[in-house]
Amino acid sequence: MRADPRRPAATASGARLAVARPDDVARARRMAYALAVAVGLGAADAAAVALAATELATNLVRYARGGTLTAAPVAGPRGRGVLLESRDGGPGIPDLARALQDGYSTGGGLGGGLPGVRRLMDEFAAETGPGGTTIVARKWAGPARRAGAPRP
Ligand SMILES: Nc1ncnc2c1ncn2[C@@H]1O[C@H](COP(=O)(O)OP(=O)(O)O)[C@@H](O)[C@H]1O
Ligand SMILES: [Mg+2]
Prior knowledge:
A hairpin with a 2-residue loop joins strand 4 (123-129) and strand 5 (132-140). This protein has a single domain (15-140), classed as Heat Shock Protein 90 (2-Layer Sandwich). 34% of the residues lie in helices and 27% in strands. The relative contact order is 0.17. It has a five-stranded antiparallel β-sheet, covered by helices on one side. The protein has helices at residues 22-39, 43-63, 96-99, 113-120; strands at 15-19, 67-76, 79-88, 123-129, 132-140. It is an alpha+beta fold.
């Protein structure tokens, strides 16, 4: 992690970016894409991670009082992967269940952002309240293991 959140290191070590203005969204997208490629995701998966980062960062700009987007390398049973974490200080998502449905937007948007992030990534979790929202999502380089399949 670099000390200056405005100058993310787009490397395999990950980075945390302050996201408050529209041009921060492009930085978040590049940061996430570069990390996904660095950890070994294929082109389509890296593009999916970049799109997820774009949606999370757009929401930080539009709906939160600024926040941070972290992209970090992770390792698990499916090999290496990318973790995206969006964190803000409020006002929170009033109805999270509805916000995760396609077409729901309080801001005149298309309402496809959060459901899109959930589909694009392999794992997705969100916690929200008046004090803020944290969304954590991971995407793995390796294929999903089928139930009952022998372990490698
Ligand atoms: N970080 C956030 N803080 C507060 N509300 C949020 C945040 N992210 C999303 N939301 C809420 O969830 C809704 C759905 O988000 P999303 O699916 O990205 O659609 P859109 O951005 O088009 O409104 C938003 O309209 C907003 O009400
Ligand atoms: Mg959105």
